[in-house]
Amino acid sequence: MHQLPVEGLKLTGYVKTGQLENKFETALAGKTHDFEKSAVYWGAHLGVNYDWRATAKLTGRAYVSYFWDGREGEDHFVAGTDGMKGTTFSYDALSAHRVEVGNLFTYDYSPNLKPYFGISVEQTFGAKAQGSLKDEYGKLVLRSSDLDGTTGVISAGWQYRAPDQSFEFGLGVNGYAG
Question: What pLDDT score does 31 carry?
């Protein structure tokens, strides 16, 4: 977090990468297939927030954040039966852009315990899931899914900070609708 020249106004940002693991079984092309593959994902975040005091014990943090997330495409091969050569299922790489606007309220219950509650709205745009399947008879482009949409988010939880400020611990939940 970077403090901007205006008191209470801060800039946030990060980049991320990691690996997703798929380990499930499903029926494709009339045959049970194990999906045990991993895929790389990546992303970036840029946001700005403004901290403001509502009362002596209640603080608000208004924010707007931009997120970009992606993952690599992948192929799954299902071996054929009865002399058929098999089918390849291909999923294109995914890329999504999201903007989230909201406010997070923190109550100073004690110097070390602070419950919080947040509400925000998030818009996803520029995100499509596409794929295809190919076998010995030809190639079929699967119907693409438009992942664009609006989601409401509520958050609640507690933050604990050790009296000597050597560590912090938080416990929270998020709810999504949309």
Answer: 67
SS (H, E, C) the chain: CEECCCCCEEEEEEEEEEEEEEEEEEEECCEEEEEEEEEEEEEEEEEEEEEEECCCCEEEEEEEEEEEEEECCEEEEECCCCCCCCEEEEECCEEEEEEEEEEEEEECCCCCEEEEEEEEEEEEECCEEEEEEEECCEEEEEEEEECCEEEEEEEEEEEEECCCCCCEEEEEEEEEEC
* Alpha carbon distance, N-terminus to C-terminus of the chain: 29
Cα–Cα distance, 47 to 118 (Å, whole number): 16
CA dist., res. 178 & res. 166, Å (int) = 39
Predicted local confidence at residue 138, as pLDDT: 75
Calculate the average pLDDT of the chain.
Answer: 86
pLDDT at residue number 35: 66
Measured in residues, the chain has a length of: 178
pLDDT tens track for 16-31: 999 877 777 777 656 6
Q: Which of 112, 116, 119, 7 is nearest to 59 (CA)?
A: 116
